[in-house]
Design brief:
- By secondary structure, the chain is mostly helical.
- Helices cover 66% and strands 3% of the residues.
- It has a domain of 100 residues.
- Strands 1-2 form a two-stranded parallel ribbon.
- Helix 1 crosses helix 2, helix 2 runs antiparallel to helix 4 and helix 6 crosses helix 7.
- The radius of gyration is 20 Å and the shape is globular.
- It starts with a helix and ends in an 18-residue tail after the last helix.
- The mean pLDDT is 84.
């Protein structure tokens, strides 16, 4: 079973690499030249630099373990931040009509799912996937799927409010919140075996 999962994950990684390598390489010259425009203000550039920075993130986690932190906590802390911040940056990236087009609301559930398409749904599932995966590993109070779902939904609501308030030329949709929260919940299930469990309470000793 484990070997089958490994083969499936490796196959998906190869397919994803084949599909994404061309658009990512389009941003490579500007990113590696240190230019902001054309790199950090584009989805391809942000994704590319996130992938390039993975060894640095791994090094930070390793340094934390050298300071005495358990490896699971070190990986969870780095992964929580490194996997979430770039995704939130992508969702807050302004569109071409930012500041001009008024905020748009879509508050009827399941209406926007069709318009998202498979790629849009997959992207929304990934927004808070790192949060859902690593938060229960780092915080024992979040070692619960309902709590992770609530956390993912709350973070998504904040992002959607920011999109609307700052007029970023994006649609503030309840479906985004639902799919973001679902992505966090599914990721939490994937990391369940490594969740941090609450410390046992000391037994009360009563005098005879």
């Amino acid at each position: 079973m484990k070997s089958f999962r490994t083969v499936v994950l490796a196959s998906l990684a190869v397919v994803a690499g084949y599909v994404l390598h061309r658009p990512l390489l389009m941003s490579a010259p500007r990113c590696f030249a240190g230019e902001w425009h054309g790199c950090y203000d584009t989805e391809n550039g942000v994704v590319l630099m996130t992938l390039v920075g993975l060894p640095v993130a791994a090094l930070v986690a390793w340094v934390l373990t050298l300071s005495g932190r358990p490896w699971r906590l070190a990986v969870a802390e780095v992964g929580l931040v490194y996997g979430t911040v770039p995704m939130v940056w992508l969702t807050l990236m302004p569109g071409s009509g930012a500041g001009v087009v008024p905020g748009r609301l879509s508050l009827i559930p399941l209406v926007d799912l069709v318009a998202m398409g498979p790629l849009g749904i997959a992207g929304n599932l990934l927004i808070f996937a790192a949060l859902g995966f690593f938060a229960p590993m780092r915080f024992a109070t979040l070692a619960s799927v309902p709590r992770v779902l609530a956390l993912g939904a709350a973070c998504s609501v904040l992002v959607e409010i920011a999109q609307y308030a700052f007029r970023l030329d994006r649609v503030t949709s309840v479906d985004d919140v639902l799919v973001n929260a679902a992505g966090a919940g599914l990721a939490a299930l994937a990391s369940r075996r490594w969740w941090r469990t609450p410390a046992p309470r000391p037994e009360l000793v009563t005098a005879d």
